[in-house]
Amino acid sequence: MANAKQISVFVDNKPNQLTGVMKVIKENKLNIRALSLADTSDFGILRIIVNDTDKASDVLKKAGYAVTVTEVLAISIPDAPGQLSRVLDILGSENVNLEYLYAFTGASDKAVSFVIRVDDNSTAETAFTNGGIIILTEKDITEM
Questions:
Q1: pTM over 0.70
Q2: pLDDT tens for residues 85-138?
Q3: CB 136 within 8 A of CB 75
Q4: Structural domain spans, the chain
Q5: Which fold does the domain 4-71 belong to in CATH?
Q6: Contacts from 26-31 at CB under 8 Å and sequence distance 24+?
Q7: What sign does the CA torsion over 129, 33, 4, 96 have?
Q8: d(CA 54, CA 103)
C-alpha cells in the first residue's frame, strides 16, 4: 500500500509552459510539498505532491493539462553518509526495481526526505519497515 499520491503533469517543452501550471496551482491556493521536473526534447513531466491531490488534479485537468495520479512511497532517512545506499540495498535485497526518486524538504535538518517510485510498492514498504526506514504518510508530507 503506497502512502502518497503524486500528480504528474505533462507539458510541452516550450517557454512559459511551467508558468501556466504554476498559475493554476497558485490561483487555487494549492501548496506544493515536493517537486521534480524532467524533460525530453518535446515535453516535460512535472511531478508534484500537493496539499490537496484531488483538487489539484481536477483544476489542472479543467485547465487543459494531461494529468495522472500515481501512488508513490515517501521516506525520511538520517542526513548522514551512506543512508541512501542503505535504502537502495534494502530495495535490491527484495529485488524491487527503482524507477525514480527525488528529494524534498523535510521537517528536520537532521533528516532527508525522498519520494520513491518503484515497481512494487507493497514489497518496498514492507522491506523499509523491516529495515527501520521511516515511511511518511501523505498527511506527514502536507504538514511539513
A1: yes
A2: 999 999 999 999 999 999 987 666 788 899 999 999 999 999 999 999 999 988
A3: yes
A4: 4-71, 73-142
A5: VC0802-like (3.30.2130)
A6: 28/55, 28/56, 28/59, 30/55, 30/56, 30/59, 31/142
A7: negative
A8: 23
Contact 23, 59 (CB under 8 A): no
Residue 103: name the closest of 112, 90, 94, 92 by CA.
112
| C-alpha pair distances (Å), 54 with each of 60, 76, 107, 111, 138 | 10, 24, 24, 28, 13
| Total Cβ atoms within 10 A of residue 116 | 25
Q: What is the DSSP letter of 2?
A: -
pLDDT digits (tens, 9 = 90+) for 17-56: 899 999 999 999 999 999 999 988 888 999 999 999 999 9
Hey, what's the cell of 43?
Answer: 515535453
Enter the CATH code of domain 73-142.
3.30.2130.10
What span, in angstroms and rounded, lies between the C-alpha atoms of 103 and 112?
7
